[in-house]
Amino acid sequence: PGHTYQCLFVCRCKDMAVHDLDMARFLVGSDPVAILASGSNHVSPDIKGFEGPEAYDTANIIVRFANGREAIIDVCRQAPYGYDQRAEVLGTKAMIATDNMYPNTAKIYSKGFTGNADMPFDFFMSRYKDAYVRETLAFVDTIVNDQPSPCSGMDGLVALVMSIAAGISAEENRWVEFDEVAKMVNCDPEGQCEITDDDGNEGQSWTALLGVQEKIEQEKLAGTKKGILERIMG
Description:
By secondary structure, the protein is of the alpha+beta class. Helix content is about 35%, strand content about 20%. The chain has a four-stranded antiparallel β-sheet. A hairpin with a 4-residue loop joins strand 4 and strand 5 (about 95-100). Helix 1 (about 15-30) packs across helix 4.
């Protein structure tokens, strides 16, 4: 991709690694408390001149969670063999892993090669086609059948804050506590939040912020869904 689509941590689109951070939180089942990240440039010389973490095309991240578990994430903007996104969870009794998706299940067994006949899907729209269908169905079910949403605004906020904290860590070469980043989050009584560059909420704890926003999400859920249902159903 060109330089307008090169962001790993936080930039114009706040994209790429934010999805892996979000997935790590989902798999661990806990909120993050601290993060350590490092980045470098190996495959994208056209972005080397960008400031701070915007210049990175390769990165490694360690996330500590409130339940005592840790996640290790490695990301790179180049995978010439296909869209590579795998996950592995190692527990005390077992391990579970997810592999890349392929266009078919055909395999070749020959004297010189053993493996998949085709390369993995090379784009996220192909890799996650079924996931997008399920996402749409879940959204419709939430509205039409008055069911809780699988994902909340808080989920999106936490993922964004995680990516910002990762960028700070990579740029300053240190662990970043999420209490430090919480002071950058400004939320009104209705639960509308924005990220600022100042320290307007000095002293605001990460745990307190998550608790307040979760309560607001729960209180808004029923009324919001009914309002949407009335608008689309008449």
